[in-house]
């Protein structure tokens, strides 16, 4: 269970593992900021619904809508990178970075 939680967290939050890895660093940062803002709004509105039963359905719609939007953004980023590479005639695996992301700060190797 612990491995599942760690892997799930890294799949979204680790820029070397999520689908936004195909974008340049500025686009990664901007997109993660927008997603963070969206999720903070989703959870703020969802927790309000605990006190009002008739708003529970709205909270569920917000959470599910946020999940669908996040998945859509990640898939769009991955497809865009793969389409650009195929248009240029370059074979790209899903694990490659854009060259703008070649320099990353790996905090776990700093210590």
Q: What's the short story on this structure?
A:
Helices cover 61% and strands 0% of the residues.
Strand percentage lies at: under 5%
Q: What are the segments in which pLDDT stays under 50 over at least 5 consecutive residues?
A: none
Quickly give the structural class: mainly alpha
Number of strands: 0
Number of helices: 3
Main sheet specs: none
Order of helices and strands: HHH
Question: How much helicity do the residues have?
Answer: 55-70%
Radius of gyration: 17 Å
Global morphology: globular
Compute the separation of the termini in Å.
27 Å
The pLDDT mean sits at: 75
What does this structure look like?
- The protein has three helices and no strands.
- By secondary structure, the protein is an all-alpha fold.
- The longest helix is centred in the middle third of the chain and has 32 residues, at 56-87.
- The model has no long low-confidence stretch (mean pLDDT 75).
């Amino acid at each position: 269970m612990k491995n599942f939680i760690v892997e799930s967290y890294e799949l979204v939050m680790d820029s070397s593992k999520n689908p936004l890895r195909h974008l340049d660093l500025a686009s990664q940062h901007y997109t993660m900021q927008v997603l963070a803002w969206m999720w903070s709004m989703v959870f703020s509105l969802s927790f309000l619904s605990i006190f009002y039963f008739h708003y529970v359905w709205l909270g569920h719609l917000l959470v599910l809508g946020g999940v669908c939007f996040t998945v859509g953004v990640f898939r769009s980023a991955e497809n865009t990178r793969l389409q650009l590479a195929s248009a240029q005639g370059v074979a790209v695996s899903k694990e490659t970075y854009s060259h703008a992301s070649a320099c990353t700060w790996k905090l776990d190797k700093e210590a």
